[in-house]
Design brief:
Helix content is 23%, strand content 19%. The protein is α/β, with parallel strands linked by helices. It has a 5-stranded parallel β-sheet, sandwiched between helices. The chain has a 5-stranded mixed β-sheet with strand order 6-7-10-8-9, with helices on both faces. Bound molecules: S-adenosylmethionine.
């Protein structure tokens, strides 16, 4: 079995029980050392073969899969493997080569960032929509037609931007481009290396994103969150949910006045 396992954002205790179980039983562990924290490998058994994939190609990774056909293999990806993890091409190899696989979800950096900031990203009365996206850079061809950050900025809502801190001026210019729903005062947050000992949480505004990233020399392993849902400080919620409103009937209780 090849298990594609979410390694979480860094802290070794931000894994699922299932992820820890797969790591404890694995014969071979391939981990992306550029993003996966080495602390997570503490869950591996002593005799497991550990291979850092940060200098490997897809071809070299699947060569390891092919060479260990009867082994329990864990392929560790940071956060949740559903987002920007390149598991799709590895799953295609598994299907083409008749190899059983599973995906073990993880704690995404976006969930960990919201937790560290102490915010809900879907605030009733403000925004109920979160868009996970990225700025197009060297890998622009990965984006499909119309998959354009400027178009999402025009919609508003809460934007969670991965892989985008390396080009601060263009990031800010795109967020404030023609037709954008955001303005220089729109709340933003930069979350760097969340859940790791050197975590940085910086609340700022869209108009200050570029200067803030540059001043803190943050280029990688950072999320940029943008939107009015970030506005309230912890404990100053601006809206409330229908589901816990006494005047709103649900399938489990009647409305009371
Ligand atoms: C290749 S993507 C992987 C995302 C991952 N699958 C997830 O769910 O978090 C790498 C990007 O995720 C974000 N990221 C990953 N770990 C992070 C962390 N500990 N703190 C902040 N951002 C992180 C950064 O935007 C980074 O450039």
């Amino acid at each position: 079995m090849i298990s594609f396992v979410g390694a979480g954002p860094g802290a070794a205790d931000l894994l699922t029980f299932r992820a820890a179980d797969r790591l404890a039983k694995a014969d071979v562990v391939l981990w992306a050392g550029s993003l996966v924290s080495p602390d997570v490998l503490d869950h591996c058994r002593a005799g497991a073969l550990r291979l850092d994939t940060k200098e490997m190609t897809l071809e070299q990774v699947v060569e390891v899969f092919a060479a260990h056909s009867d082994a329990a293999i864990v392929r560790l990806h940071s956060g949740d493997p559903a987002w920007y993890s390149a598991i799709g091409e590895q799953i295609a190899w598994c299907v083409a080569n008749d190899r059983p696989f599973e995906v073990v979800p993880g704690v995404s950096s976006v969930s960990a960032a919201a937790a560290a900031l102490g915010v809900e990203l879907t605030v009733p009365g403000v925004s109920q929509t979160v868009v996970l996206s990225r700025l197009a850079k060297r890998t622009a061809k990965s984006l499909g037609p119309g998959d354009d950050l400027a178009a999402y900025a025009a919609q508003g809502g809460l934007l969670a931007l991965f892989l985008s801190a390396g080009d601060p001026a263009r990031l800010q210019a795109t967020l404030l481009g023609p037709g954008s729903a955001y303005h220089t005062g729109t709340p933003a947050a930069i979350v760097h290396r969340v859940s790791r000992p050197d975590e940085q949480l910086i609340r700022t505004t869209v108009g200050e994103i570029a200067d803030t990233l540059t001043a803190h020399d943050i280029r990688t392993t950072a999320l940029v969150l943008v939107g009015d849902a970030l506005a309230p400080a912890a404990g100053t919620c601006v809206g409330r949910s229908h589901v816990y409103d006494p005047a709103f009937a649900t399938a489990y209780r009647d409305a009371t006045s």
